[in-house]
Amino acid sequence: MQRLSTIVLERSRDSRAVRAASGSITQQNGQVDEARETFEQMPQKNIVSWNAMIAGYVQCKRMDMARKLFDKMPFRDVTTWNTMITG
């Protein structure tokens, strides 16, 4: 059976929103590493995809990874900061 991230990447090459949603779904199932693979394969990342990935790490209690990704972000918004603070 194909992994969710592979299917999404094949069928939504230009849709950042679909990819971000895919990452969110994957994270909710506790597969944050698979979500990160999907995130890293995205040719263009927007604030939604960055925030979804950070929120996934926070939800999985992986604050070390959330912080590393937070530090790597090219820009942050209120949602980003709130996610890190609540984590």
Helix-strand blueprint:
Elements: H1 4-11, H2 16-28, H3 32-41, H4 47-59, H5 63-72, H6 78-86
In short:
The protein is mainly alpha-helical and 87 residues long. The protein is 72% helix and 0% strand.
Explain the overall architecture.
Keywords: Repeat. InterPro entries: PPR_At4g14850-like_plant, PPR_rpt, TPR-like_helical_dom_sf. This is Pentatricopeptide repeat-containing protein. The protein has 87 residues and is mainly α. It has one domain. The chain is built from 6 helices and no strands. The chain has helices at 4-11, 16-28, 32-41, 47-59, 63-72, 78-86. The longest helix has 13 residues, at 16-28. It starts with a helix and ends with a helix. 30% of the residues are buried.
Tell me the span between the first and last alpha carbons.
34 Å
Q: How would you describe the shape?
A: globular
* Structure classification: mainly alpha
β-strand number: 0
Q: What amount of the residues lies in strands?
A: under 5%
| Rg calculated over all Cα atoms | 12 Å
Biggest pleated sheet: none
Residue stretches low in confidence (pLDDT < 50, at least 5 long) are 4-14
H/E element order: HHHHHH
What is the mean predicted local confidence, pLDDT? 76
Helix content: over 70%
Count of discrete structural domains: 1
What is the number of helical segments per DSSP (H or I, 4+ residues)? 6
InterPro entries: PPR_At4g14850-like_plant, PPR_rpt, TPR-like_helical_dom_sf
Keywords: Repeat
PPR repeats: 46-80
Pfam family, one: PPR_2
